[in-house]
Amino acid sequence: LRHFPLLAAVCSTTRAPVSAFKVQELGNLAWSFAKLQVCDLPLLNASSASSLSRISDLACASATDMQSLSNIVWAFATLGLTDTPLLDAIAAASEQMSSQLKP
């Protein structure tokens, strides 16, 4: 179900505070918009910038953080967007965090 006036309102009111979102919140936001096939570039650009600043803070990431990063990658791929700096940062962080994974 897509209610475009509601989605537009969510997009416009979420752009400013997205800079304060945690990694999980950024992943959930990106995933939900991709699932609905809604591509709000200003919101996704703000989300990308916020994600980049959060990724460097993930020295010891949880499984939730890793899932959130994969949600961001999935969302951008699903929407057909390429954000090379974001994808490079997630790839580097994933490589560093891989040692924390348990089989």
Describe this structure in words.
The mean pLDDT is 85. Helix 4 packs antiparallel against helix 5. The chain is mostly helical and 103 residues long. The N and C termini lie far apart (38 Å). 67% of the residues lie in helices and 0% in strands. The radius of gyration is 14 Å and the shape is elongated. The protein has 5 helices and no strands.
* SS class: mainly alpha
Largest sheet: none
Distance from first to last alpha carbon = 38 Å
Poorly predicted segments: none
Q: Write down the overall geometry.
A: elongated
Percent strand: under 5%
Number of strands: 0
Helicity, as a percent range: 55-70%
Overall mean pLDDT score?
85
Could you state the order of secondary-structure elements as H and E? HHHHH
Radius of gyration: 14 Å
The number of helical runs is 5
SSE order and pairing:
Elements: H1 4-14, H2 23-35, H3 41-55, H4 63-78, H5 84-97
Give the gist of this structure.
Helix content is 67%, strand content 0%. It is an all-alpha fold and 103 residues long.
